[in-house]
Design goal:
14 strands, globular, alpha/beta, eight-stranded parallel β-sheet, Rossmann fold, 11 helices, 42% helix, 20% strand
């Protein structure tokens, strides 16, 4: 019996690397395609240095029956707003090239990392590119019979994040400056989901019951940012908490409350998928603080 195979584009990044690892643990032969080699690559995983648009570098490694994941994208909202043309190239045009290749290769299923921003009125050009990408993926199913699952991830946190991650950046600056500075509204609310829980849920999406569906993967509860800051204060003993005004570019692009609309869900056949969550928010934040203390020697 041949081994199950999976290709993970963007598998060197925050969420992509965790998905690659959980696939390996579940006996998948994993190939990571990324422009940077993973710091966490497993010796059982193959790595190909390539960008999403470099089909000639990776096409021979994609075989019929593979499950293909895509986490390769311009995902930083501020960068996307400053580089709309490059955002279109990477998040839409290069994606369409990949989709055409997957049709030719007769792959089993394509799993695409989208975002909950598509359900709201924030997110700038990043949101626009993800909405367009979702539309292309659905039309590829309708016209060319390419099976898919679209995953709209909520607010991720946990190990392997970088400074583009909100909680990572907040905690890093908190530890460095010995005060908690939050750039945004006191009314901000998020459905935080630990990256390991997100990866574990993603593994289940391979099952055929999730074929050709759009799913929302967010945390089990809404948390006000004031509650999160209180936990961080209690863990670290840092009492000084201050809210800063966002700059104009950020203000128009970031949501205050996680956009998850039941009415939109019913209209678009989208539904929220959840399971038992293994990492509670308090423990997840403690672990992240310890990781960042070690990483930045703080």
């Amino acid at each position: 019996m041949s081994k199950k195979r999976a290709i993970v584009f963007g598998g060197s990044g925050f969420l992509g690397s965790h998905v690659a690892d959980i696939l390996t643990k579940n006996n998948y032969q994993v190939t990571i395609v990324d422009k940077f080699k993973s710091k966490w690559i497993n010796k059982k995983q193959r790595f190909i240095k390539a960008e999403l648009g470099d089909l000639e570098k990776y096409s021979k490694y994609i075989k019929r029956g593979d499950v293909v994941f895509n986490y390769a994208a311009i995902s930083d909202i501020e960068k996307s707003n400053l580089e709309p043309e490059n955002t279109v190239k990477v998040n839409i045009l290069d994606l369409v090239k990949l989709l055409n290749l997957l049709v030719k290769k007769k792959i089993k299923k394509f799993i695409y990392a989208s975002t909950v921003y598509v359900s709201g009125n924030k997110g700038g050009f990043y949101k626009s590119s993800k909405l367009s990408a979702e539309s292309f993926i659905k039309e590829f199913k309708y016209i060319k019979k390419l099976n898919y699952s679209i995953l709209r991830y909520g607010t991720l946190y946990g190990p392997r994040s970088d400074e583009n991650n909100g909680l990572h950046n907040l905690i890093k600056n908190m530890l460095k400056n010995k005060k908690i500075l939050y750039s945004g509204s006191m009314e901000s609310v998020r459905n935080y989901i630990h990256v390991i829980d997100a990866a574990r849920l993603t593994l289940k999406i391979i099952e055929t019951e999730f074929d050709n569906k759009t799913l929302v993967l967010t945390g089990p509860e809404n948390y006000k940012i004031t509650y999160i800051l209180k936990i961080l204060s209690e863990i670290t003993g840092i009492k000084n908490i201050k809210f800063l005004k966002k700059d104009k570019l950020k203000k128009v692009s970031h949501y205050i409350k996680t956009p998850y609309n039941i009415e939109d869900e019913e209209k678009s056949f989208t539904y929220r998928y959840s399971d038992n969550y293994n990492v509670v928010i308090d423990q997840g934040l403690k672990d992240l603080i310890l990781e960042l203390k070690e990483k930045y020697k703080l």
